[in-house]
Structures are given as structure tokens and as C-alpha cells.
Design brief:
The complex is a heterodimer of chains A (231) and B (521).
Chain A lengths: L1 E10 L2 E11 L4 E5 L6 H8 L6 E6 L2 E2 L3 H5 L1 E4 L11 H11 L7 H8 L15 H13 L5 E5 L7 H16 L3 E5 L3 H4 L5 E6 L2 E7 L7 H11 L4
Parallel strand pairs in A: 3-8, 3-9, 6-7, 7-8
Antiparallel strand pairs in A: 1-2, 1-4, 4-5, 9-10
Chain B lengths: L2 H19 L1 H22 L10 H20 L12 H8 L5 H19 L1 H4 L2 H8 L3 H29 L3 H25 L8 H8 L10 H12 L3 H25 L4 H20 L24 H13 L7 H16 L4 H17 L2 H5 L3 H5 L4 H9 L2 H19 L4 H29 L6 H28 L5 H21 L8 H6 L1
Classes of the chains: A alpha/beta (231), B mainly alpha (521).
Chain lengths: 231, 521
Amino acid sequence: MLTVKNVTKKYDKVWANNNISLTVPDGEIAVLLGPNGAGKSTLIKCICGLLRFSGEISICGFDNKSLEAKRLLGYVPEMPAVYDLLTVEEHLEFIRRSYKIADDGTGEKLLRRFELYDKKDKLGKELSKGMQQKLSICCALVHKPEVIIFDEPMVGLDPYAIKQLKEIFTQIKNDGVTVLISTHMIDSVEDYWDTAYIMVKGEVKVQKKNGEGNESLEELFFSATETGSDK
Amino acid sequence: MGALSYLFFTKQKNRFREYLRSPSKLIFLLVMLLMFGMSLYTSLSDDPSQKYRSIDEFLAIVFLIYTVAFADVSKNGFSNGASFFSMADINLIFVSPLRSANALFYGLIQQLGHSLYMGVIILLQYTISHEYYGISLKTLAFVALGYGITVFFGQMLSMLIYVFTASSDKRVRIGKIIYYSVLAFFVIYVIIKGELFTSPSLANMIKAVESDVLYFMPVSGLTSFFVEGLVKGSALKSCVGALLILFFTVAFYFILSKTRGEYYEDVLKSTETSSSAITSSKESTSFDGLSRNIKVGKTGFTKGVGASAISEKHKIENRRGKLIFLNRSSFVTIGMTVIYSLVVNGDEMMAFVLSLYSMLIGVSVGRWMKELTLPYVYLIPEKPFSKLLHVVREQIPVIIFESAALFAVLHFVLHLQVAETLSMLVARIGFGLVFIGSNLLFIKLTKRTAKTFLTIIAYTVLSTVCVLPSALCGIFAGMMFWVHPFTGYLITFPINIAVFLLLLFLCRNILEYSEFNNQER
């Protein structure tokens, strides 16, 4: 479970996040939507322990900056950044060592699923942007986290990889994993979201459960961002 | 093996393999080894009766180089910072269950390796150091070590400055006042102690630099103290220096890991900035490395229609980037040429050639070159030649102002006559124009810019061929009219102008198709 309570983040004079609260229970997929500059990436970086903030964030009951919480967290960044001088296989080995887990074959399964297995001995710098994104996803999943944060995960992926990723979303949801996805591609998450949070100017303007009301996610997004409707 | 040790050693192993796999890197390594071997070989045939210049003069130059390197690196803390980490470190290490103190230690070790690697540049100065100062390879290795440590400390201070000032403009202002006051104190001290205004001389400057007070100059004083101990065989000095270096490294580690335990946020932004600079450099897209606070000032275009809109855009960008007359590489060129002029004992011809060499590189990395990789330059519906002239126009004032500033300094350093200074200044401008042309020709022929080792070599050869007519005429005229040695410099100018115009003519259609652009991306 992911809990965000009254999180506020201010950069000099700009409120990037203003008193944000949200909860994503086990086995649920929450989507974070909003126009550019709404504060989505800042919130995600706060959750991942990369930024200082006021308020509370907990991952499965642990403070998000504790090592216990980090052990349970997976993060797919917006821009894939992998090590130039590590091979695909060595990236996964590094993650296993960081999380102190044994090789149970999950890494190989993920590489095969994302068509990276034949490139396991390629260096990070030899991969295309799309392949780096796939590797980034594999690195976030290999330690079987209980909470996973995806920041624009579909960008740069080919149709086959998008299909695989969507299947993974469903699969990990069924396994009871908590998922938070930040995206601009509303139609890509339309089929499997449980809760939607629409952010505007650093605040959550709309929170909606799937099945409530007749509005589609897209309609809801535009009504929130164009008219600035309240929660 | 722990995760971070695994990461560090695997990267080193793969880096070594990359060297063996890549022909250009291997050639680069072999050329460097060859150059180094030749330096060693020539030094073996020494005349034992040869008199060398004072070792104190050498140490004064070392101090100067350390100070410039340290200030150049550390001041970045007020703008973009200097991160020890890559974006991959942030995405994979910072979010993992590894202790932040361990991550910091890993970053420090990594940075120390990079800094010491930069010290290798010093080793390539062996011939000149040995020729003039009788410096042994061991001594130069100590100097290189000191340089690496200085750069390392520069990076550490830069990161500390960034961490403690990035959150507020007020802190930046206070930090800058302290930083530049300390720097100014030592500069004023050297000027007064060396009587540089009343009786300027190299001997006086060395006397001032030798003063014990300068050992307190942040970091460069300390590393100079340490290196001086090693060079002069003073065990006490070198041990005290080494202990102080160790002390400051440990102090930095504790300041950052204890007082700023959550330093991840502080390094995130500077890493993102460095990362975009590296990406831009790889992709040849425009990145000016500007400070975080840019005064926009007056907005909009008041002039510039059609192709001239390009030069108007440059003017606006240069105004906002505070690059009105000289850019960063100009200062490096001036500094390096002046130092070399001192080392080569006031040999004006040698100083002139060195100033051309640094300009050769400076022109090829100018912003105008990056402009050529952007699609809009090709899309503007104007004649390619007209667009080319407006793109090139940006570099010409840089060459003129840089040459003027350089020879204003060299006039005093080399004790030149006014006519001599002016003729060298005019000659350098002519050579600069040819280098612009040789860059264009290189792009036309190879469809790429000179970025890798092999392409830089090819570009240097091409540029040398382009300046050959004027250089030969200049040498010949200098020999013929020996009573007026500056005639040789002057005569190169009209020839270089002719070569420049010819090169422009040959490359007149370079902006018609963006083949170059596609290759680069």
C-alpha cells in the first residue's frame, strides 16, 4: 500500500506540490494525470525518496526514506538512464546485489518477455532509447517490489512492448502489487485503472474511482484541466 | 562482493574491453603512448652542461595552473553544480536500499578516478618541462597527481556550494561574495607583493607566488605545498600536505553525509543538468551550459528578416548568456597561451603558433558549429550562402576580441613593440577566418564535425593544409625582410583572407540539404 499524506513541496517561490494526499491500496492501479508542470513528476520523486518534502509518505507502512521501504519499491523513471558500461545482464545482477536477492530466474523471464534476452551481453550505451526503457522496466521489476511507480512508462516503447507492459500491469495487480502510473497517454490506461488522480497546478483537483459516473477518463481530464473544476 | 563494488569494478572491466574493441580509442592510446615515448627518448640525449630555468619558476607555474583549474571547476557550484553521479546512479542507486553514505563514498571514488585521469594531460607536457626546467618524469608524475587532486577538490567544493546555496538566491549572493572575496584577497596579495603595477617582471611574480601566505589559498595552495614537498624531497612538507588533503576529504564526506543526509535532492538537479549537457554533446544539439538565473531583459526581435534573423537570434542569445565579446574557450586560450609564453622563455613565434593551435580547437567547438546541426537553419527559405554568412558571422567578433585581448596581454608579457603586437593581432584574425573555412570544408567533405580523436586529427591536418600558403609566405617574407620581423605576420593576412573566401565559395551550398545534420543525429 502507498500512502501520501499532506505532501507539500516548494521550490523557492513555486509550490510544486501543495498539500497532496492520496492512497493506493494493495492490488490497485492508480493513475496520475495532469498537464505539463502540474507537479506529477515532483510527487513521484518525493515518493521515491529523491526529494525533501513536508508531510508523510509511507510504503507498506514504512517511511518512504527508510531502507525497508526502498526494498519494497520499484521505480521506472520518465527518461530511461542506464549505465553505458554495464551489459543488460549486469544491470540485473547489480539490482539483485543492491536488493540482496538471489537469481530466481525472474530476470531472464523479464528479458525474454521484453525481447531483450538476445541482447543480454550488449552494453547500455549500445541500446536504443526504446530498449533502454525496456531495460529500465526490467530493473524495476526484477526484485519483485510491492509498490511500483511508473513515470510515463509507454514513451519510446514499440507496440509489442506496450502490449507486454499492459499485460504486466494486469498481472502484478492480480498479484496484489500497488501500482501508480503517471502518464499523458490517457487512452493507454483507460482499460485497467482503479483510481484516477488529476493534478492541476500542484494540487489534486479530481479524484475518481473507476465505475463512478459516466464520464470517461479523457472527458474527466479535460473538464478538470480546462474548467478547473473542484474535487 | 557488494553491489557498489560490483558496479565499480564491472564498469572498469568493461571500459578496458571497450578500449580494446574500439579502433579509434586504441589508435588514440597508441598515439599518446608514442608521444610519451618520444618525449622520454628525446630527454635521454641531454647535454649534462645544459642550464635549466629555476625550479621555483616551474612551481610558480604549477601553482598558477592549479589555481585556475580549481577556480574554474569550483565556481560551477553557483550555477549548475558538479555532480559525482550520473542519471543511471540516481535511477538505480538512489532509489535502491543502499545507504546514502555508501552511495556518496562510491561517488567520491568515481570522481577521484576521473580527476586523476585528467592529470594525465600534465604528463604530456613532459618534453617542454624537461627541456626548460630539467623536470624528471617522477617529478612530473607528482605534478599530475597534484593536478588530479586539485580538480577533485574543485568538484567537491562545487558540489558543497551547490548543496548549500541552490535553494535560495540570497544564499547564492552571499556565497559568491565570500568566494570571490577570498579569491580577490590572494590576487591582490600577489599583485602587491610582486609589485606587478610598479615594476612588473616574472621574477617579482615568482617571488610573490613563493610566499608562504599563498599556501593558504584554498586547495591550490595546499596541493602546491604537497607537490613542492615531493618535488624538493621534503618529507615533512609532503606528509603534512597529504594529511591535510586526507583531512579535507574526510571532512567533506562528513559534512555532506551527516549534515545533509538527504543530499539526493541536492545532486538531482545538477545531475540532470550535467546529463542534458552530455546528451546534447552526444547529439550535437544546442546546449550552452548557462547559469540557472538568466536575465531575459528586452524580449523580441527588433531587426533581422530572412537569413539575417539568424544573426539577430545569436545577438539575443549572446546577450542573455552574457557572451558579448569573449566566450569561455577564449579565456582558456588566453590563459594557456600566456602560461606557455612564459615557459618558452618569451619566444614570440612559439607563442603565436600556440595561440593558433588553441584557436583551431576553439573555433571547432564554437556555438556556430552546433547551429549547423539544428534543422531550422536548413528549413529557412533563403539562399544557402546567405544563411551560411549569417551563421558564420557569430564567430568573427569572437576571433577579433579574443585576439585583441590575448595580444594586449602578450604585448607586456613578451615585451613586444607596438607594430609587432598589431601585426600579430591582424595575422591571428586572418588565421581564425581560415579555421572557420576549414571547419566548413571538413563538414562538406566528411558530413560530420570533428569530435572524436580521429576526426580531430583529420580536421587538424585539413586546417594545416589550408593555412600552408600563408604560413610559407609569412616565413619566407620574415626571412627576406628580417629588419622588420613583423612583415612576415602581416603578409599572411591578405593570403588568409583569399583562402577564407575561396573556402566559403567552395562550401556555399552547405546549408541546402541537412545531410550533415542527419549524420550527426
